[in-house]
């Protein structure tokens, strides 16, 4: 059994600035790809989505930190990811235009009980999938829906008509 290399586990093999640059570029690219995939993909996790997320981390590990296994490089990479996430959250909170770009806006899927087919097509939500979301709210008739939206977090929300008094 090898003894623990206490000092070696902290000595980075890569320049820390290169780690920050690599992580930043990959983070921004992944954000762009996930944004292009659409919000629906973030609001539900199928086995395909989970496989994609796990494989994504495996594929990008070397891109982020190369062959460097030091704790220092790992901490720098994690801190950089955290900083980008914090910055994006702060920007979205402070500026409505930034929030629209970073998080997107809700998209109306149903208006007064009628499907908005163009928006369903753009969001890649089928009629049957929308009805499945509706059934999860204990309803099965689109006529009871005043409006439905795909929210920026990927969830579908419904506004129902009030029942006649």
What does this structure look like?
It comes from Archangium lansingense. The chain crosses the membrane at residues 20-38, 45-64, 70-93. Residues 96-159 form the YetF C-terminal domain. This is DUF421 domain-containing protein. It is found in: Cell membrane. With 165 residues, the protein is an alpha+beta fold. It has two domains: 16-103, no CATH class; 107-160, CRO Repressor, CATH 3.30.240. It contains seven helices and four strands. It has helices at residues 16-37, 40-43, 47-65, 71-94, 96-103, 117-123, 127-135; strands at 107-111, 114-115, 145-150, 156-160. It has a four-stranded antiparallel sheet. A hairpin with a 5-residue loop joins strand 3 and strand 4 (156-160). Helix 1 (16-37) runs antiparallel to helix 3 (47-65) and helix 1 (16-37) crosses helix 4. The longest helix is centred in the middle third of the chain and has 24 residues, at 71-94. The N and C termini lie far apart (78 Å). 11% of the residues are buried.
Q: What are the main properties of this structure?
A:
about 160 residues, single chain, elongated, four-stranded antiparallel β-sheet, alpha+beta, CRO Repressor, 4 strands
Mean pLDDT across every amino acid position: 86
How would you spell out the order of helices and strands? HHHHHEEHHEE
- End-to-end Cα distance, whole Å, is 78 Å
Strand order of the largest sheet: 2-1-3-4
The radius of gyration over CA amounts to 22 Å
* Protein structure class: alpha+beta
* Major sheet size, sense and barrel closure: 4 strands, antiparallel
Share of residues in helices: 55-70%
Oligomeric state as shown = single chain
How many structural domains does the protein architecture include?
A: 2
Based on DSSP secondary structure assignment, what is the total number of beta strands?
4
Q: pLDDT under 50 segments (min length 5)?
A: none
Beta-strand residue percentage:
5-15%
Shape: elongated
Query: Helix tally?
Result: 7
């Amino acid at each position: 059994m090898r003894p623990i290399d206490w000092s070696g586990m902290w000595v980075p093999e890569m320049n820390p600035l290169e780690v920050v640059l690599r992580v930043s570029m990959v983070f921004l690219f992944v954000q762009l790809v996930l944004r292009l995939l659409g919000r629906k993909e973030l609001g539900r996790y199928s086995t395909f989505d989970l496989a994609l997320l796990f494989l994504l981390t495996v594929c990008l590990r070397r891109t982020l930190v190369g062959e460097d296994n030091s704790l220092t490089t790992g901490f720098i990479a994690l801190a950089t990811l955290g900083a980008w996430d914090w910055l994006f959250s702060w920007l979205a909170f402070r500026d409505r235009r930034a929030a629209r770009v970073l998080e997107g806006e809700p998209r109306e899927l149903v208006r007064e009980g009628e499907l908005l087919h163009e928006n369903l097509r753009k969001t890649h939500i089928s009629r049957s999938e929308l009805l499945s979301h509706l059934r999860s709210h204990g309803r099965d008739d689109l006529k009871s829906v005043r409006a439905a939206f795909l929210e920026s977090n990927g969830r579908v929300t419904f506004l129902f008509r009030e029942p006649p008094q």
